[in-house]
Specification:
By secondary structure, this protein is α+β, with helices and mostly antiparallel strands. Helix content is 49%, strand content 21%. One of its GO terms (biological process) is negative regulation of DNA-templated transcription.
Amino acid sequence: MAETSLARMIAILDLFKSPRAAWTADAIASAMDYSVPTVYRYVRELVACGLLRRDVGGTFVLGPAATELDYHIRTGDPLIIGAAAPMAALAAETGMDAVLATICGARIITVHHELGAEPARMSFGRGRRMPMFRGAMSLCILAALPRAQLRKLHEESGAEAADISWEALLAQVKQLRRQGYAYTEGALDPGLAGLALPFTEPERHIVASLGLVSRQSTLAARDRTQLLDALQDCARGIHAALAECLGA
């Protein structure tokens, strides 16, 4: 299927992320293998709608419309709205960071993050794309996917999937499904650990994970059963909030 203009513009926007947040049209053309006139046409449209803005030296950066979209998703997404209070209570109860991540296509992204009493200083806070095959949050999402979708993700993830074979991934997912949760140490950040559960709402097409992140020594010393109970209570609270929103 031919790539649409919309898909190309979204691909251009995907370039604008840390550590390189400013791009010239020539650099975009080189990175995307598009012609320079094509890039100028797309960039002109993105500037016109506020998703990009012109900066110094002929560069472009993300525009204010991106900030506006962030506001709208924080105040309009039923999942984020429904998760806010239960996750704040979870963070207060455990003293750990409470994290919610969802999958979108071939990306797993943190969509909500409540800080605990001692913030974990994690690298993958709200808005950050997580590694697909590492960490408790990502593994829980993968465990909730149908086998065919999981296989496709692995086949199409290129270098990101190079460190784990399909057989090893499938075995890991099967084990997670049996035990119902994932626990990892140092998978994303040295010295940090994560404990997570899958969170799904089929009616809303939500495949997500809900987790706690803390210092490795702190999380390892806590009663895991109690922490899992707290996570499950939080998940029930989010489900209830979503049901209330659906019935409103």
